[in-house]
Amino acid sequence: MPLESGQALSGLGLRSSRISERLNQVDCVRANGVGDHIPLPQLVVCGDQSAGKSSVLVGISGIPFPRQDGLCTRFATEIILRHEPREQRTTATIIPNMSRAEDEKTRLSAFRRDISDLADLPGIIDQAASLMGVKDSPAFAADVLRLEVAGDTGLHLTLVDLPGLISVSENEEDVQLVGDLSIIQRARRFDKDGLRTVGIITKPDLINDGTESRVAKLANNADRTKLKLGFFLLKNPKPSELQKGMTMAERRKAEQQFLRMNLGRSLDSILHDLLDRHIERELPKVRKDVAQLLNKINKELMNLGAERTSPAQIRMYLTRISTDFQNLVRAGVEGVYGSRDAFFHEITNENEFHRLRAVIHIENGKFSNYMREHGQKRRVVSAEDQEDVEPESGQILVTEEEMSMWIKKIYYRTRGRELPGNYSPVLLAELFHAQSARWSDIARDHVNVIADLVSRFVQSVLVSVINDTDVWETISRSISATLDENKARNDRSKKDLGTSLDNAINEDWKGRFHVSNSSYEISRLATSLQNHRVIVDMEERACSEAQTDLGAYYKVAMKTFVDNICRQVIERHIINKLPDVFSPVTVSGYSDEDLLCLAAESPQLSKRRVEATQLKKGIEDSLRELR
User: Fold this and answer.
1) Cα separation of 118 and 3, whole Å?
2) 62: left (phi > 0), else alpha (psi -120 to 50), else beta?
3) In 3D, which of 293, 286, 266, 294 has the Cα closest to residue 42?
4) Cα torsion at 316, 322, 323, 325 (round to 10°)?
5) Measuring CA to CA, which residue among 508, 495, 515 is closest to residue 555?
6) How many CB atoms lie within 10 A of CB 400?
7) Domain 311-501+537-610 belongs to what topology?
8) What's the pLDDT band for 368 if we cut at 50, 70, 90?
């Protein structure tokens, strides 16, 4: 039973040149795959179970869906009519739902049946139902059976046969599933003005005796339930007539005879004008939506970038992004914030680290102030404030008297052959060593703050120049390893940054930035800084001078230490080499294996690029079609 020539549209008034052209335009857009991304004008038949929806679609499409009393559609069926007079073919395929597991998607997608006789369609639908798992089950499937009919159909048209709306079911999942499948579950919700909704009264020949007048009143839109576009009668063939092989022509004739004997209007009397108005009203929106979709796809393709499957392609890609990375990092390090407006100018509290040099200055200032105010191990406060002032971590609050007692204690421990009133050079060294005990921890905390800012800055730069998440992760790991190596390079054993900071304190103590520990230098410093107080007790005098010298010595050493931390540790080992951690020179040294590990695109990304490219072509073809 091949599809009768032109039977799909016979008697429905859909062959006028203008509406045929418009419907062809819309369905060409749908055939290009654009309908999966934007809403397109279409005919949708929805109603309760066993209300005759499939029969309505049979009347429009001419495709003999299996229809039996008491049975209803268990899955959506998409009917695609293609007007190709020189080609006659009918194909059935299954479109798996996205929620299916990958192996199920593969199994269902493999379903394909070429139909030479539409009499075979019921059996093919049963096969599809079995594959979906709903043949002998009351459940509903979210998959779609697609029937593509190419031939003398009259025009392109796509129709959808949906499972009926369920009002009561023992399985709540069925109610939800059908709700998800239905394009219009409640017409008024989607068509508040009633400009697109037509009421269709099916099975009018099966009404009970005595209710004919009520049905006629409803059909004439004179009942309490009114639709702006009214109601129409559609007489479906009886099961006995279908078994005898009633043709579409015989169906039309039987329907017209029935309508002439009753008071209703047939659907085909207004469908032409309804479609004409609806399509003309919606086409400008479709053109706008298609144009916006093209812009979106162009942006996505730009973000996806060029193909990256060979080492040469990857090297070119990495060279480009490493150049962008290096330029942006150098601008941040040097404090030149005009090179990338989007990166450096849209600054908030959350991303102020983008202006790296500025935040480093701020943090260095905080470090210097903290060292000056809280760097000493023993901090002298008044007796009155001792209980109210909260000491910093690892700090001891002492009074002037307690400080003097501590210095005297160390003085006694370091006595040598010096004359009364003088003190051993070792005294000042031990006092300073004790007072600067907190410097290492404070410096480590400061360096960690800077390292964190630098890490966040680098990660943000990478996000700015790399769109591929997988590449971002691999490059990020590589750069983090390089940064860690730079920070630890000052220590020959390369254990950790802590060793570098210890070296900055202990090794430099030997004369690099401190005053010489000789008795001559200490005496000279003491003489220049003494308050020339006359102290009779020679021990008291020595301790007092040591305390004065310690204060002066501490200030000089602290300033040098702060400067060394900021310049030697932060600048030399963290900041200066930052632009070179990922540069074109670095990329040039990568082997082919390194390149493939770092930035070869994933199969998913390759697939998406192909899909996006194909969709772009379909969108461009659709725009030309809609002009």
Assistant:
1) 7
2) left
3) 286
4) 150
5) 515
6) 12
7) Four Helix Bundle (Hemerythrin (Met), subunit A) (1.20.120)
8) very high
Share of the chain above pLDDT 90, in %: 12
Where do the H-state alpha helices sit in 268-350?
Answer: 271-304, 311-334, 341-345
Tokens of 369: 């102030």
168: nearest Cα among 198, 123, 138:
138
8 A C-beta contact, residue 465 and residue 305: no
The residues, ordered by sequence, that sit 6+ positions from 357 with a Cβ below 8 Å of its Cβ are 332, 333, 334, 335
Q: Residues spanned by CATH 1.20.120.1240 within the chain? A: 311-501+537-610
For tokens 């002298």, name the residue: 380
Maximum C-alpha span of the chain: 138
Residue 233, Cβ density class (10 Å: 0-12 exposed, 13-18 middle, ≥19 buried): buried
Pairing of strands 378-380, 396-398: parallel
Q: What is the pLDDT of residues 502-552, one digit of tens each?
A: 554 454 444 333 444 444 444 544 444 444 444 446 667 777 777 777 777
> At which residue do the structure tokens 């001559």 appear?
520
Tens of pLDDT along 429-445? 888 888 888 888 899 99
Residues paired with residue 202 on neighbouring β-strands, in sequence order = 234
